[in-house]
Amino acid sequence: MRISRYLFLLLTALTSLDVIAQDTSAAVTSLGNIAQDADVRDVSETEGERQLRLMKIQALQTNFSLKLDEKFVYIGGDKTSYFHPMQVIYRDYSGSENDYIFIWGSTGDGNKVTFSSEFVRPLPSLRKDGIDSRINSSVMNKDTASFEAKSYGEKYEEYHQRHISFARKIIQSEVCDTVIYVATPNFGGQYLYGLCGDRKEVKQMLSDFEQAKPLSKTIKKTYLVLPKGTRNKLREESIRKIQNVR
Q1: I want to staple 17 with a disulfide (CB 3.0 to 4.6 A). Which of 27, 31, 166, 195 is the partner?
Q2: Domain boundaries, the chain
Q3: Which of 80-84, 148-152, 154-158 comes out lowest in average pLDDT?
Q4: Phi and psi (nearest 5°) for 84?
Q5: Domain 48-127, what fold?
Q6: Which keywords describe this protein according to UniProt (predicted)?
């Protein structure tokens, strides 16, 4: 019998938890497991992490002859790719004309990818088409058959428009060049979550968004904090369920 994907992720998270330094009774995991008494915490990039990230980017630039001021965007259509439309990439001038490098915005790590020219557009070309051209269509288009549409009911229109507004705000604030995804997680306090074209995460509390407060450009890691009692209980329940399906 197959173990559910949620149960697998839950067990993985609960058996590989780190303990946050200032609260030894709390378990911290970067996986978004749903827990009613969870708390979301942001940890800003340290100076050491920033220097390491920049060193990695410099190494990629040297090794692959990248022009960091020359950005391209994967616009979708390649069925063999795991990439999301609106991911930002760089031409690998040490390789062929279809070779690119994707750089993770939060870490500076890189991945080699290959795309035909029909699946890629220069970022300046998208800029000319307006802000909305740099937002993934999954954010811009309604999905009335989605779980969110059914959950929000008559408020789905408001929910959908808020996501579009947040994506536009991210680009207008020059936090990101493009936006892949927007969500409104409910655990740990309601907030808006955006995923940039370099896979960097942007988060803002819903109340701050409604008050038109500016977005932070600081790179942060978001963690879900579980009280020790809840962590132990969930771990025990997960292990018991897995044992029962063997």
Answers
A1: 27
A2: 18-45+131-228, 48-127
A3: 148-152
A4: -95, 140
A5: SH3 type barrels. (2.30.30)
A6: Signal
